[in-house]
Amino acid sequence: MSVAEAQTKPLSLKEALQQALKNKSEAIKAKLDEENSRNKIDEARSQALPQINGNAGITYNPILQLSAVPGDLAGQPGKTLLIPFGQKWNSSASVSLSQTLFDKSVFTGLKAAKTTQQYYKLVSRLTDEQVIEKVATQYYQVLVQRQQLVVIDSNIATTTRVMKVIEGQYKNGLAKKIDLDRSKVNLSNLEAQQQQLNNAVQLQENTLKFYMGIPIETPITVPPSALDSIQPKLAMMDVMPDVKKLSDYQVLKKQEELLVLQKEATTAGYYPSLSLSGNYGYTGISNKFPIGTGANWFDYASVGLNLKIPIFNGFATRSKVRQADVEIKKLQADIKNTELSLNLTYQNARTQLRNSIITLNNQKENVALAEEVYANTQNNYTQGLAPLTDLLDAENSLTTAQNNYTSALLDYRIAEIQLIKAQGNLKSLLN
């Protein structure tokens, strides 16, 4: 659903979640990190491919270096002659190639890059789940507050009708002024609650828009009918999650793999490395510029095999390996704690959901009872069998019961979301 459509049609939870995953910066950045991990693999792979470089240059020697030679060579025995060697202008062009034949750190780096890609995929999935949790929770907070607003509006309409009846009775001498004043005070209190709820709904909707990543000025409508879809589900509490398959746990395990590979890359400092190198170039020398056909040109080439054997670096490699071991042990402690935490979260979510269902059912019964009491009291008051105080009390009790019921609906829905999260099924809300 586009932003324009959001202005004209009711916003479902599924549409809100889709908007959030499409627009929210956290989700976008997580997807970009996942995409960028492929570039990191290419970068790591490049270290195992041939490295080819071209070089060219020209040098002018205004003063040639003098070299000392025996005078015997020039028929001047006993003397030392200083003779300049070389030409005023030198130019060169060459191509060099190097190829790694064996370097443990290079091949470990390639494995680490592939593992990093898997890590960012998991982080992206975890980020999506976090966005879904925020949006779903906020969505139902807006929904319940809107429902409370509907209840207040209904109560205001009912209280207004009662007040008009009392006002008519007062004019006919059948009711006291204090009864009319009490009714007006009750109506005024309901209108104050209505204004507070309107403000709260606006704030909650703005927060929902922020979580969805859409402009704050975009009008949205959360349909009250969505409350009908909230039905307590006891069966879902029996789904025991495998915490090792949850995103939070898998992200940490993938971090552990990366730390192990980092340790391997550090350990590679103990191993020798072998590479092949080659050079081919042309050099020209002349006393005139530009260097042309009159210059002396010659080519050269070389091929080499380079073996590097680490012997002693002041125990630097050993220290780095030990540091890597410590980091791995620290992460393993975090993994163990996370496993316990995820199990605790699941058990708490089950308990909270069970309690929420009990509360929800109780509040539903309370609403039905309060409606019945209010209807009977209103009928008795009309017939002069009950005082206004009883009617106002019954009205306040009904309002309280209705608000408690909508709050219980929110508590249930939030508990349900937490259990779905603990089971690793948050993306099911997109269906």
Describe this structure in words.
By secondary structure, the protein is an alpha+beta fold. The chain folds into two domains: 3-47 and 103-271 and 315-430, Outer membrane efflux proteins (OEP) (Up-down Bundle); 49-101 and 273-308. 61% of the residues lie in helices and 14% in strands. The strands form two sheets. The protein has a four-stranded antiparallel β-sheet, with no helix packed on it. Strands 2-3 form a two-stranded antiparallel ribbon. The longest helix is centred in the N-terminal third of the chain and has 68 residues, at 104-171. Mean pLDDT is 88; it is low at 1-7.
Topology:
Layout: H1 3-6, H2 13-23, H3 25-46, E1 51-60, E2 66-70, E3 80-84, E4 89-102, H4 104-171, H5 177-212, H6 247-267, E5 273-286, E6 296-308, H7 316-382, H8 388-422
Antiparallel strand pairs: 1-4, 2-3, 4-5, 5-6
Helix pairs in contact: 2-4, 3-4, 4-5, 4-6, 4-8, 6-7, 7-8
Question: Can you summarize this structure?
Answer:
By secondary structure, the chain is α+β, with helices and mostly antiparallel strands. It has helices at 3-6, 13-23, 25-46, 104-171, 177-212, 247-267, 316-382, 388-422, and strands at 51-60, 66-70, 80-84, 89-102, 273-286, 296-308.
The total count of strands amounts to 6
How much of the sequence is in beta strands?
5-15%
Strand order of the largest sheet: 1-4-5-6
Mean pLDDT: 88
What count of domains describes the coordinates? 2
Distance between termini? 15 Å
Q: Quickly give the CATH architecture of the largest domain.
A: Up-down Bundle
Subcellular location: Cell outer membrane
Keywords: Cell outer membrane, Coiled coil, Membrane, Transmembrane, Transmembrane beta strand, Transport
Family: Belongs to the outer membrane factor (OMF) (TC 1.B.17) family.
Protein name: Transporter
